[in-house]
Every structure is written in structure tokens, then in C-alpha cells.
Amino acid sequence: MSEATVTTGEASGSVEAKPAGGAAKKPTYRRILLKLSGEALLGKRQYGVDPDFCAFIAAQVAEVHRLGVQIGIVVGGGNIFRGLAAAAKGMDRATGDYMGMLATVMNGLALQDALEKAGVSTRVMSAIAMNEVAEPYIRRRAVRHLEKGRVVILAAGTGNPYFTTDTAAALRAVEIGAQVILKATKVDGVYDSDPLSNSNATRYDRLTYSQVLAQRLGVLDATAVSLCMENDTPIIVFDLNKPDNIRRVATGESVGTLITGGSPV
Q1: In sequence order, what are the beta bridge partners of 180?
Q2: pTM of the model
């Protein structure tokens, strides 16, 4: 496939990396939205949350946070409960989705614990009110937390059934003014087929939103991609399991697959 014309869309407040020569790189993005799947928190477990893997993620996020990047996180709940799977077995779809949203809050609390043990001040904000364990999601309050240097975990999806946490990530990224969405996966980018089952799958370095939608590549759902396209929010799909990848992405290194606007060349 031909590559797309890509710009990193450096908005006000972003800074460029220092030249090579041993100097630490500065972040390319001032504010990012990290999307984690619930399955990412499984680690080596079959179910639930692996504290060791949460600590692994927290260490990477803490490193990027120390660079001065403002970080929002949206996490899924598939490691605990997946509403779509339950609906396929006969459960009411809305009920299943609400249960999945509650699972994301549990994951958010686990991440908050890991991040604060890593020395990062963190707030969990929920789209479903549960004041005893999380703040209600209010956009201006979330932005204020970011400005004060706190990591904000945005839980409970959009607060509505029939919407995925991918769509929640796109929505929250637009709302808080994130310059990029970092979509963490188990593979190192977007492929034309499943690389875990097809050894001949081809990886893309760059794609346009339209290409992702037209080819139904499935890295994010169509609603999330369309929302990013309408608001010109870039998406970077990368492998979470490799240490230091979050920092590498945040400092502008070419990691994974970049999805953005533009026309193929």
C-alpha cells in the first residue's frame, strides 16, 4: 500500500527532540491520551489484573510524565467482563455493556495504585457516578488535573451502552485536547491481517483514517476512527509489551503505525 502524507501536527506547547549525541530527548507531544485494553492488564494471568504488569505499565507512564507530558488514560475491561461477549450468549446488550463499564473502573483503580506507587499523582474519573471510589468525569476538572501534573484515568467508557472504550478514548482525547492517541496493543502496529495467525501479514508504517475504514482493518472501531478523522486527532498503534515504547512514541520516534489525515502518495 502507498503511504499517506503525514504530519505530526505539533500544536502550541509541543517541543522538538534534541539532536543526537547523548542528550535526552524532549517530548514531541504536550498532552497525550493512552488507550489500554483490559486484556493488557492480564499479564501472565488468565483472568483479572496482574500487579506486576500494572507496575510495568506504571513505570513507563512515570518516565513519560517526568518529561513533562500531560497524560490521560482510557482502559478497557475485557480482562474482567466483556459486554459484547455476554450479549452474544443471550444477555441484554445494555446490561452487559454497563457491567463492562464497571470492570473498567476496577482496572482504573488498579492502575491508579500502580502509578502512585511509582510516584505519580493520579486521579480516576468515572463517567458513571461512584463518588466513594472515583471522581465524576467533568471535562474542565479533568483538564485542570492534567495542568496540575496529575495523570488522569478516564474510566467507565462514555457512560453509555453500545459504545466501545475505543470510542471513549477518541471522545475523551478530543474533549481534553490531546494531541495524539496512543493505542497500546500486543503487536507492533497495524497489519493487513492478523499477524498472530498469519506469518505473512504485512505491517503498515502509515495509514490514513479513510484507509483504515475502507479496509476495515479493525484496530479501532469505525466510530472511534471517524471521530478522530473529524477532529484531526492522530492515532499511533504500538506494542505495549516492549519496554520504553511509550517514551519512544512520546518523544517522536517512529514506532508502530501512525494513522492520520492526508492523501496517499
Answers
A1: 32
A2: 0.87
